[in-house]
Amino acid sequence: MTGFLLENATVVTGVPGADVIPDGAVFLDDGVVVSIGPRGTLRSPDTATRIDAGGGIVMPGLVNAHSHAADGLFRGLVEDLPLEPWLQTVWKAEGAILNADTVRLGARLGLAEMLLSGITATLDMFWYPFSTAKAAEELGIRLVGGGVFIDGKTSDGLDHRGHLAESEKFILGYRDHPHIHAAVQPHGTYTVGPSSLKDTGELARRHGVLWGTHAAETAFEQATVTKRHGRSVIRHLSDLGLLGPDVTLAHCVHLDEEEIALLASTGTNVAHNPVSNLKLGSGISPVPDMLAAGVNVALGTDGPISGNDLDPWLAMRLAAILHKGARQDATAVPAETAFWMATANGARALGLADRIGTLEPGKAADLILVDTGGAHATPMFDPVNFLVFAAGRGDVRDVFVGGEPVVRNRRLARADLAAIKRDVAALVPDIRASIGR
Ligand SMILES: [Zn+2]
Fold this sequence. Notes:
Layout lengths: L3 E9 L7 E10 L2 E7 L10 E4 L4 E4 L1 E6 L15 H15 L2 H17 L2 E6 L4 H11 L2 E4 L2 E2 L10 H14 L6 E7 L7 H14 L2 E6 L3 H11 L3 H7 L7 E5 L5 H10 L2 E4 L1 H6 L7 H7 L2 E4 L12 H16 L7 H8 L1 H6 L17 E4 L12 H7 L6 E6 L2 E5 L2 E2 L4 H18 L3
Parallel strand pairs: 1-4, 1-5, 6-7, 7-8, 8-10, 9-10, 10-11, 11-12, 12-13, 13-14
Antiparallel strand pairs: 1-2, 2-3, 5-15, 15-16, 16-17, 17-18
Helix pairs in contact: 1-15, 2-3, 2-15, 4-5, 11-12, 12-14
């Protein structure tokens, strides 16, 4: 390998204080960013592949802090229901359709959509985690995944012990992988009992990997957990010793001040999923309060059945504008903050802050090139304002993960999207039949 030199670009590094280099260049080699600077100042071998960025923006890849990639198989199947009855129908379809092969297919679809949208890393929660990992290896995306838990025997035939064994096998199997990283993810505090939750936390900490779950997503969930355990979701997790900088909680919509303080003092990460929270009528997360308290808030797309697509740009734009409207305060969640939520904060929430999230020499070359040729990009007084308030996934031209081009000129480099779509179409009659349609 002799590297890539990206030139003729506005470089947005995402590093506070050094964040924009107009007419800049980035040289990547051997999987990492080697150097960043004004055009013509970087040393690179003559054999490096030169890429003309065409005046576009080179920036860190977007980090998705909460997804269920393979759920793309059920996109649009169940709509306009609140979370709990909606979940019952979704789980019926999942139970009938999912196996190691269909999950791999669904993950190919979901991860392909993510890469084409500029997501370079995702924290994914789904059954048959080895299938999603294989799809991630095929496509070249960075994945944090692994064992998932729910009480009782699941459709893959595994009970709690079985899932613990599967989870540990994933951790050991991917320990040294360059772009697949292990996590342990029970579904939630209302679907997994306290002693099982503790087992999963112990497993994650014994191996030093990330632990994550859904938390405080709906009022119904808060009421259920409070009735069962006499304490709210966040206090329940706190009492079980399951908060900390190695923990990422998806949603956190229903919180009081004391719970926000608990998240902040323990360094717990939160994945904000504005699209899913709005569409499922779950509520509006107190993101400005969490940010003010010092909580690391990242962004997630959630699954394509709770948001229909996996669009990080919509999540980022909503993170920046939703709270302005809800609070009648145009200063809530400034553009730069929303940008960091989608990049550096996401890296921290995935346990990969030392490796990704900003463009810096020595960090993994996970980066994207955003085209700025559109009418909606003209004029551009501030690239970060453009990225947050106007850019979309149609603007993503090239995507690199670990220094490797995985999307070039809006096409997957390592997989055939048409073949993936054909395979999904062949499964559609069975998916319909699974819920009697
Ligand atoms: Zn979710």
